[in-house]
Design a protein that fits this description.
Blueprint lengths: L1 E9 L2 H11 L3 E7 L3 E7 L6 E7 L8 E7 L3 H11 L8 E2 L5 E6 L5 E5 L13
Length: 129
C-alpha cells in the first residue's frame, strides 16, 4: 500500500488558506460541497501527495484528524483480512461514483484509515467547482 491523502478537519478554509497555500506551498486543485461538508483538495507541485481540508457543519476540536488514505491493489482481500485475520471490524466496502472500491478501518487507538483502489476520482476535472 502507499499513502496518497491526508484528511484534516478545519474550522474555516479562509482561516487556513494562507498556511496551506503559502507556508506549505500547496495548490488548491478543486473543492466539493455537500449539504454537510466542504472538501478542499490540495496537492504539492509534483502531485505526489494530497491534503483534503474538510469544513463540517459541526463543532470541531482543534487539531481534528480525520483519516489517512492508502491505495491498495486488493481492496476486497484487504477488507477480508482486516475482518477475519485481525478482527478490526472494518466498515463495508463502498464504491465511488467512478467505480473505485474503498473501506474504512480503525487502528487499535481509534485512528481511521481509508483503504482504496487507485483512482482519478479525487483529481478528475468533473469534480472541480
Amino acid at each position: 500500500m502507499k499513502a496518497y491523502l491526508l484528511s484534516i478537519g478545519i474550522t474555516s478554509y479562509e482561516k487556513s488558506e494562507k498556511f496551506y497555500t503559502g507556508f506549505l506551498g500547496l495548490d488548491l486543485t478543486h473543492k466539493i460541497e455537500t449539504p454537510k461538508s466542504k472538501f478542499y483538495y490540495m496537492t504539492n507541485e509534483d502531485k505526489s501527495f494530497s491534503i483534503q481540508l474538510v469544513v463540517e457543519n459541526k463543532t470541531l476540536d482543534a487539531g481534528s484528524f480525520r483519516h489517512v488514505s492508502l491505495y491498495s491493489n486488493e481492496v476486497q482481500k484487504d477488507w477480508y483480512q482486516a475482518m477475519n485475520e485481525y478482527q478490526l471490524h472494518p466498515m463495508p466496502v463502498q464504491k465511488l461514483p467512478g467505480g473505485a472500491c474503498f473501506f474504512y478501518v480503525k487502528d487499535p487507538d481509534g485512528y481511521v484509515y481509508r483503504i482504496m483502489e487507485e483512482s482519478d476520482f479525487l483529481t478528475s476535472d468533473r469534480h472541480k467547482s
